[in-house]
Every structure is written in C-alpha cells, then in structure tokens.
Amino acid sequence: MLDLASLTDFLSQPRKVVITTHHKPDGDAMGSSLGMYNYLIQQGHHAKVITPTDYPDFLTWMPGNEEVIIFTENQELSAQLVAEAEIIFCLDFNSLNRINELGELVRASNAYKVMIDHHLEPEDFDDYRHWDIKACAAAQLVYTFIADQLNNKALINKDVATCLYTGIMTDSGSFRLPNTTSEVHRIAAELIDAGANNSRIHELVYNSASENRLRFLGYCLANCLEILPEYNTAIIAVSKQDIQRFDVNTGDTEGIVNYALSIASIRLAAFIVDRSEKVKLSLRSKDEFPANEICKKYFAGGGHRNAAGGQSDESLEATVEKFKSILPSYKKLLIQ
DHHA1 domain: which residues (predicted)? Predict the structure, then answer.
C-alpha cells in the first residue's frame, strides 16, 4: 500500500491519470470524477475520465463533461489510456465488478490505484484508500482528500466546487438524509464560497426532466405501484414493454423509488425494472432497516443500509415474487 507521503510525492509531478467510477453513474459518481479531473488538470496532470457506461443527460452540464470517455462507446481508446496510466483514481465504488468489463483492464494495469469511496466491504485491489462509510457521498471524500490530505484547498476552484457540490447534493438527498452531518454542511458552504452556484445546480439536476420522463413517472405511480401494508413495503415493478413504450433513457428511472418510500407508513420501497438483459432492483429504506443486506444476500448486489441495488436473472414476475417471499423474514423490522 502507498502511504500518504509517497502518494503526495508521486503526484508532485505531472502524471498520466485515469479517473473512473461505477457503471450507470449518478450525480455523486460524475460529480466526484469531474471534481477530481478539474483539480488534477490545474497541476498539469494528463487526466481522463472514463465511465463504464453512459449516464443521465441531467449530469452532462458539469465542467469537463465534454472530455469524458464512455467505455462502451470507445473501448479501444479506453483500453489504451488504462494501459498507459501511471495512476488510476477509482471513485464511488469499492469493487472492480462495479465497472463491468473496464474492471479487468484496471486490475491488469500496473498503475497505482487510489480508491475514494463510502461503500461497505471494499475489495482489496487498491494501493491507497480514502474510505469512510459514514461519509454521505464520495464527493465529500474527494473534498477532504484534496483539502486535507493533499493540503490543496486553494485549488478547489469554481469548476471543482461545482462538481463536488453536485455529488454531495445528490447523494445526501438534497441534504436531508441522516448522514448529512454538520461537517457536510460546512463543506457545502466552503464549496459555495469557492463558486458553486447552489440554486443553479439544483435547477439543472432536478428541474430538467423531459415530458416523456414525467409521463413515465405518472404511469409508474398510477399503474405499477403495489402496497403491502402487512410489511409496510411498497413495490414499483416496470416491464420491458413499459420501458419501450415510454422510450425510457438512462436516468429516467432515477429517484422513482423514493416516491414509494415517501408514503407515510412505508419503511421499505423497491423499484424493480426489466432491463431485458437483467432485472434490476433499487431498494430504499427508513431508519435501521438493512436494504443492503437484502440486495447482497438475495440479489447479487449491495450498497448502503438505506439505499442499495441488485439484479436478477429471473423474469420480472419471478423477481417480484422472490422479493415478496423474503419479506416475512424481516417482518419484525418492518412493522416496528
């Protein structure tokens, strides 16, 4: 493992850098990645952000986005950059299977690997780790990595601040989730002081939906929502026909599960969607209910206690039934 002094010394000269994050990146993934990118280029590093897959249009406005390389659309260049990299920053994920086919390229690389993450049970593939499961967002950890560990707070300019604020805002549920501590608010204030336009960022992320996306949301709530009162659980199950009918794009399903969780009596909400190649699950829970345990134990996934994801090779109907069959085991926690 690298120690901090060795890492700082290594970064004191321009390096070939790759920054990557998990597949189907969300606001924290892209905010962390582009925040790191905008920091590194100020020091003359040759940095590139490579995402395993595409990501929502409502995140493409961030500074540096035009330089992002999407692996699935440019595999040859991505492989070349990873092979040539001297250091790879792995942000907002802790296992190489979270970056799909890109993971094996990263694993085979001779570059130093730096993990900055807040998820449980990290895989041991990294040379340096800045990891804290209590952090509300990877972007929070990127901030402390730059400002505190590298002692370069002065280089958190408007572009860096804008990206990191976006990551913290989205992963903290607009600063309302339990892990939004006073420290998180102080960091947010520092980022605003550095140039992040908080109201504009909120507008770009949350108030830029297409008409199609809004109609799809309405359809899900009117036709796909099932309440299981005996378990204080809500399920929204979406078929591949529904996905095709509404021409659902990357990001259009973002946050729909939270509408189910917003029902007063609900302690566990599931958004289950047939993506053709696999059925994907997104779970959200309240208080101490371990959504991550269900995803890890039954659906080849994981995540945080109150926000987790998984997948299934079974049909949508079979996956929904499997999810329902699990609930009796958790009834005591669900009806507290």
Answer: 245-326
Superfamily in which the 4-206 domain is placed by CATH: inorganic pyrophosphatase (n-terminal core) (3.90.1640.10)
Closest by CA position to 196, among listed 171, 154, 165, 156: 165
Fold of 211-334: Diaminopimelate Epimerase; Chain A, domain 1 (3.10.310)
Residue range 219-268, pLDDT digits in tens? 999 999 999 999 999 999 999 999 999 999 888 898 999 999 999 999 99
57: three-class secondary structure by DSSP:
helix
Q: Are 4-206 and 211-334 equal in CATH topology?
A: no
| Residue 309 to residue 299: CA distance in whole angstroms | 8
Residue with tokens 């336009």: 197
Q: What is the pLDDT of residues 266-316, one digit of tens each?
A: 999 999 999 888 999 999 999 999 999 999 999 998 888 999 999 999 999
Residues 6+ positions from 52 with CB-CB distance below 8 Å? 20, 21, 22, 23, 71, 72, 99, 100, 101, 102
What is the model's pTM?
0.90
